[in-house]
Structure formats: structure tokens, C-alpha cells
């Protein structure tokens, strides 16, 4: 299903349908994440990927027009490069531990402590929130700063327009 | 889109529930899925929806630019401030155990304020970007 949508995004020349298909893709991705029991991530994917970013893309589309320009050169070199990178990434996944293997390195380091002590230490039943806000508070502070920087960058880039009128 | 009666009525019906859902996601994030990021985005989406239906000027009147811009910075400051309060009360930076006599309560308090900071910044940035993009459309002669 997602592969069909992806091919649709690549083939489609009308940018409006590309944006809508990207939203469809995000929703499918969210269902996949629900299937993986990552409800928090699925919620973010559905609201950010399918909601806000679609509105922003449509707003951008209203500014630049709805048809994709014909490429000037045949993109064989980028295509070959992309295929090489895909090959390298697929080769890399072969070295990963099997899916949901309990003995994988990631599950033996700090995860047992989070899962066993998290409720006792933070009193928060949702372990994702406990890790996000408490154990990894510094990381989240960095994330918020990234969001802030993105907003400040957009303001800095587009503010000039508003001053004119 | 101001003339479509059905859209206007449905929007007025749905937007309160969107905001309520955002608050639910925000404050229930300790127990169920959700948290500051999601709540901020949903809250911003409600205002974006309002802007799509009733027009950008109406939304700008509802949530003025200066509030949005203050939110962008205030959330980060709130988050960082929680860390500073932790230092002042004798702990490490972003150490929530010292925020209350009972360490678990302190954790609760710290997570609450941190998540609030996240939600404020995220919704502020989302709204600001939307205002910026949507506002450009109105003056076609600028380059």
C-alpha cells in the first residue's frame, strides 16, 4: 500500500496530488507505527505529517504554482548514486539484530532500568513521557531548541516581506 | 471560504473539541499516549483550521502575532527555567527530584512544566510558520 503511494508520488506531475498523496502516506505510516505499539510516535506522525505539514505545503504551493517543471537534464548520475546508497543501507540492515530480539544490545543497556524503575522513580505510567521529559530531559531541551531555531529562522527569512506593507 | 455555511458551522462545532483534545493530550500525557509535542501541534492545527475557514485576518485577531512570537521563545525559556529552578533548589540542572519534598511529586511537577514549555514552543512555531506562509499570499506584487 505504501509502495503504491510512493510510486504515485514519484510518477505524479501535479504537485497538488503529490501533497495529498504525501498526507495519505503519513497516515499509512501512522497506522504502521500503531501496529508497532509506538502510539506516541504515531500520534505525532498523524498530526504533524498529515496535518500541519500538508497545510504548510499547500500554502507553499499556492505561492509557487501547481505543476512540476520538466527536468532539464536526465538524472542518471543522481539515480545511480541513490541506488548505491540504497544498496549500502540494505547491506547495513543485514547486520542489525533480528526484529524484537530481546537480547539486542539496545534492550540490555538502560532499557531494563527505565521499564522496571521508571514508574517507581517518576510516578508516570507512560514510560515514553518519563523517558522523554525526565531521563532524557537534556535531549528534549535540545529538541525544543531546534524547534525554536527553526521558527526563528523562518521569521528571519520571511520577516522582510511583512515590513514592506 | 467564508461563504460556505456548512464549513462554517462544522468548523465552529469541531474547533472547541480540537482544543479540548489538545488539552487532554497535554495533561493526560503522563498516563496515555501524548505529550507536549502532540498537544502543541493539535492546538496549532485548531487555529490553522480556523484561519482556513474564517480567513487569516480573523485568526490574526484571535491569536495576534505578538502572542505567537512570545510563545516561540517563552516555551524554551520555561523549559530552561525549570532546569535553573532545579539548580536553585540544590540539585543538578534539569533535576526534578528537588522540586518537591517528595521526589516522585517533584518528578511530576518537573515533567508537567517541561511538557508545558514544549507545547508552548511547538504550537507557537507551527502557528508562526503558517502565518508567515499564508500571509505572503495576500500581496502578490511583492517580490
What tags apply to this protein structure?
A: 165 residues, mainly alpha, Four Helix Bundle (Hemerythrin (Met), subunit A), 7 helices, 0% strand, extended, B: 143 residues
How is this structure best described in words?
The complex is a heterodimer of chains A (165) and B (143). Chain A is mainly α and 165 residues long. Chain A folds into two domains: 68 residues, Four Helix Bundle (Hemerythrin (Met), subunit A); 63 residues, no CATH class. Chain A contains seven helices and no strands. The termini of chain A are far apart. Chain B has one domain. In chain B, 75% of the residues lie in helices and 0% in strands. Chain B is elongated, with a radius of gyration of 18 Å. The interface between A and B is large, with 46 and 54 residues.
Query: Into which percentage range does the β-strand content of chain B fall?
Result: under 5%
> Based on CA inertia axes, which overall geometry of chain B fits?
elongated
CA-CA gap between termini of chain B: 26 Å
The CATH first-level class of the largest domain in chain A comes to: Mainly Alpha
Question: How many angstroms separate the termini of chain A?
Answer: 47 Å
Strand-pairing-aware structural class of chain A: mainly alpha
CATH superfamily of the largest domain in chain A: NADH-ubiquinone/plastoquinone oxidoreductase chain 6, subunit NuoJ
Radius of gyration of chain A over all CA atoms, rounded: 21 Å
CATH architecture of the largest domain in chain A: Up-down Bundle
Q: Please compute the radius of gyration of chain B using only Cα atoms.
A: 18 Å
What sort of overall outline of chain A do the alpha carbons produce when their principal axes are compared?
extended
The total count of helices of chain B amounts to: 5
Mean pLDDT of chain A: 80
Tally of distinct domains of chain A: 2
What share of the residues of chain A lie within helices? Answer: over 70%
